[in-house]
Amino acid sequence: MEFIKMNFRDELAKVSPKLRNGADIYVWGAGYGFKHIREQYKIIHNIELELFIHAFIDNDPSKHGTEYFGKKVISPDDLEVSKSVVLVSVMNYYDKSIENQLIEMGFHWRSDCFDRVYIEWLLRRHMRTQLSKFINVHHGERCFIIGNGPSLKIDDLEYLKNEITFASNQVYYMFDTTSWRPTYYVVEDGLYMANNDLYYKATNGIKFFWAPGVFQNNNYKSENTYYFDLDFSVSFQQYPYSVDFSKNPGIFYWSSTVTYTCLQLAVLMGFKNIFLLGVDCNYPYMRKANGEVFNNKTCAHFYPDNDNTSDVGICIDFDLHNAGYKAALKYADESGIKIYNATRGGKLEVFERVNFDNLFK
Fold it and tell me: How many CB atoms lie within 10 A of CB 200?
């Protein structure tokens, strides 16, 4: 799947006629605001935003004549309005003084001057465009979504070497004992992203990361990596939960488990038969809707839960997990898609169970 590098000027020119007529791009604010936005563009799209910028503007006279990210810092008085498009990078969303200053100079909001919210929106629009390339790329095929439950076995992964598979989080703990590697690797939890070196070295497949999570670690590489947004609206609900299911590129609904994101990705890609393996849905501490907490006295994963990214001490909302799985089943039934549970044991009973071994006879 070819990754198309973003041309920031071309994206902004879609809404700014001045840019289409040759205007230059300026950034108002030679400070942390631009640095923060730049980091996001570098991580998500692997571009250096300053390459598209003519100069920085700042009201602070002490900065005039200096350089920031290799570009000159100028006074607002040096701007030629007819040939300039301005991006405001200041962090304070509620300070309208710069906006008012630009309007008094003759600029028009969201035509030739834009705030940082719009700059970040451009980033996400292109991010979703990238994901749209995956729509129906596996139309009618089957895939396996691998969970990290204690039932997951090395021998099972050996069967999957020639299958299309999704895996997540710390599945790379298996890599020393099997030559199997996932086709697609998915992470939505910033805690797991903190240890990115292991799976970058071990995983050759395509990676999908929750975009805000990667900003916790600026060492990410963008090669073969795509990003998505999550809708957390269910987290504001009380039981009984109502979880949506999405096949729209770039934004998926959260249901407290990365497996739910994998299911939405698989449907986006057009898979007809989806098999879950190692999705035990069984955690050491689980909470029911009535507030009851029970200890299963079990390990949550196939690896020991003894590091700082494990679920030790976390109380999993069992009903929220199931609400997501039921939403997936409903969508699948309505769309002619089959989701099967090939997990050996576990507590997930939403999907029809099948014998994993029989799938390869």
Answer: 17
Q: What are phi and psi of 284, to 5 degrees?
A: -55, -45
CATH fit for domain 135-360, picks 1.10.760, 1.10.10, 3.90.1480, 1.10.287: 3.90.1480
The predicted structure's pLDDT at residue 340: 98
Model pTM above 0.90: no
- Residue spans of the domains in the chain: they are 8-130, 135-360
Residue whose structure tokens are 């001490």: 313
Give the DSSP per-residue string, 2-39: PPPPP-HHHHHHTT-HHHHTTPEEEEE--SHHHHHHHH
Res. 301: pLDDT tops 80: no
- The gap between the terminal CA atoms of the chain, to the nearest Å, is 32
Rounded to whole angstroms, the Cα distance separating 235 from 256 reads: 9
Three-class DSSP category at 151: coil
Are residues 339 and 263 in contact, defined by beta-carbon separation less than 8 angstroms? yes
Cα–Cα distance measured from residue 352 to residue 20, given in angstroms and rounded to the nearest whole number? 55
CATH level 3 topology of 8-130: Rossmann fold (3.40.50)
